[in-house]
Design goal:
It contains 3 helices and 6 strands, in the order ββββαβααβ. The radius of gyration is 13 Å and the shape is globular. The protein has helices at 39-47, 54-64, 69-85, and strands spanning 8-11, 15-20, 23-28, 34-37, 52-53, 89-90. It has one domain (8-90): Outer Surface Protein A, domain 3 (Alpha-Beta Complex), CATH 3.90.930.60. Helix 2 (54-64) crosses helix 3 (69-85).
Length: 91
């Protein structure tokens, strides 16, 4: 999927999650892979529970973390592209 600040994204539904040592561990039911998310990755994952534009995800993160708007958008888009590459996003 082509992602930009106007893209509306949400997470896929078939992912199991568990908290392990202050990290969120996810496993997709139709694959053998698992993923560990740090605090910010976990927060983005939570925000992806409902469809929302990337720009809104960034706006919420800017309220919660001390980061510039440019850095936030760049990092969020990079992270979302990784999730998409693993089949964890839907548009």
């Amino acid at each position: 999927m082509e992602l930009n600040r106007d893209s509306i994204v949400r997470r896929v539904d078939d992912v199991m999650t568990a908290e392990v040592d202050n990290e969120l561990v996810m496993m997709r039911l139709d694959s053998n892979g698992y993923f560990g998310l740090d605090t910010i990755g976990r927060r983005i994952w939570e925000l992806l529970a409902e469809p929302r534009p990337v720009s809104r995800i960034c706006a919420e993160l800017l309220e919660e973390y001390d980061v510039s708007a440019e850095e936030c958008e760049r990092d969020v888009l990079h992270y979302l592209r990784e999730l998409d590459g693993y089949g964890l996003l839907q548009g």
